[in-house]
Amino acid sequence: MKLASAGRYGLLTVAGIISLAPLLWMVASSFKPGAAIISSPFDFDPGQLTLANFRSMLETIPIGTGFQNTAIVVVVKGALTMIFCPMAGFAFAKYAFVGKRVLFATVLTTLMLPTLVLLIPLLLEMSQLGWVSTFKALILPGAIDAFGVFWMRQVIMAIPDELLDAARVDGANELRIFASIVIPVIRPGLAALGVLTFINIYNDFVWPVVAVNDEQHQTLQVMLAALAQNIRSGQLGADWTSVWGQLLAASTVAAIPVLIVFVVLQRHLIKGVMAGSLKG
Amino acid sequence: MATLTEAATTRRSARPVRRRRVSAAPYLFVAPFILVFAAFSAYPILFALQLSFTNWHGAGALEIVGLANYQFLLTSPDFWQSMATSGALWLLVVPAQVLLALTIAVALRKARFRGLFSAALIAPFVTPLVAMAQVWIILFDKDFGAVNHGLTSLGLPAISWLTSGVWAKVTIALLVLWRTTGYAVILLMAGLSSIPSDVYEAARIDGAGAWHQFWSITVPLVTRTLSFVVVIGTLTVFQLFAEPYVVTGGGPFNETRTAGLYLYKHITNSDLGLGAANSMLLVVMVLALSIASIRLLRSREDS
Prior knowledge:
Largest sheet of chain B: none
Largest sheet of chain A: none
CATH class of chain B: Mainly Alpha
Shape of chain B: globular
Strand content of chain B: under 5%
Number of helices of chain A: 14
Oligomer: heterodimer
Shape of chain A: globular
Order of helices and strands of chain B: HHHHHHHHHHHHHH
CATH superfamily of chain A: MetI-like
CATH topology of chain A: MetI-like fold
Largest interface: A-B, 104 and 99 residues
Distance between the termini of chain B: 41 Å
Number of domains of chain A: 1
Radius of gyration of chain B: 25 Å
Order of helices and strands of chain A: HHHHHHHHHHHHHH
Helix content of chain A: over 70%
Number of strands of chain A: 0
Helix content of chain B: over 70%
């Protein structure tokens, strides 16, 4: 029994270390002088810590613009998702309306489709609308996503009808019922949806890289990838000591917001992922 | 009994009230979603289907070419290479992920500090993919990377992680496994926690060992979650884009040009009709693989 338990904790510890090691290595190395990253990747000498990588990274890429663009997309797209997914979920969970079943079946089917399929037709649609390289293109496609609607429907279905009917008898209109009864009751589910939505939008890469071709609207992730590409094609020179330090500094800066959100809200995230598994 | 009839009467009496007052509400609630869904999901899919029968390059009238795009792709070595690359990555990622995630989830189920371990395991999933892909380039560099540094200091030979076709696939598979296995663990934890503990108790009384319990109780009862993990893994691998885009750029010699990267090439070449046909083939492939994996897993359930 003792042996089994040692095995259990041994396994979990190894898995935990493997999960965290690349992250910790990235953050720690970004503060090391470029030459030391290469010559002694596993040594960390507190006396050597430097901000040089961050300074030269800031000169190479306009990371502030990237942050700003990503922030705009996260806030607007996130708000659309957080307001309209529960609203649509409410309609699917608690009302009968014409076309509901067909509509819901369509939603479920699209959950199974690879999103890459949309890439080409969406890009064409954007160019027909004249939306290429605009915030509209970054924000609207993929906002109010089907998974969020499906998930909110599951959560709202658990609310007893009596609670809603009682409010109706008191003369509340449907919007009022949604805002003052449904929303407060589903707050834990909403929190989990919020965390997942934030992470998904913040980390999104495929669509932004296709939808935007000017630097002015590049999101943080696109900017980072461009940096890596420039390095591979040799545009930044072959001085690995400087280039790697910059890459690590940029990656660390980009990871900080999600890691903060994660540390503060990770319990909601885990609950959210668990709730998502009901989908199967 | 009383509550049942009460519920029945409220439902009956509520219905006419709702029909009179509410008629517009559900439509208004669902309208924003429908608008976005129709404009940016349903319409593009239908448009892609139409495009796949044309030779459109982004301007001018649509010229129908019938099945020519499909014929071209299905006889193109590049297309099959991209599919084979994604297939190879699938083999490297999905079976290993299922085994790892299930083992870790079972270990985690009765462990203390569960919250702490879960948090550590899911942390890679939230980190920006592009950032981590860059870290991967550095960690797996042949000459200066930390991984080879570690291998050689243990007396093992250095590996050409990014410059040999086979190892480049392994490097990308490792990135995918590192990022998404924790997510699968949490999903499986949810599945495991739905198994009542008295099932295990009964098995223990009958003298079933830990291994026997695992195979005859745990695995069959989490089949649904396992198939969900497999489907998500399949979708992830066949859509793989950012990882090879950043880590290898599809190289060396297109050895890591996944289905997703190949699709992107049609866009940069403005071969949009061809790209649309490629998307449709990708859908068929993903659905077929997902359904096949679910069947395979479910057949265990019946036996």
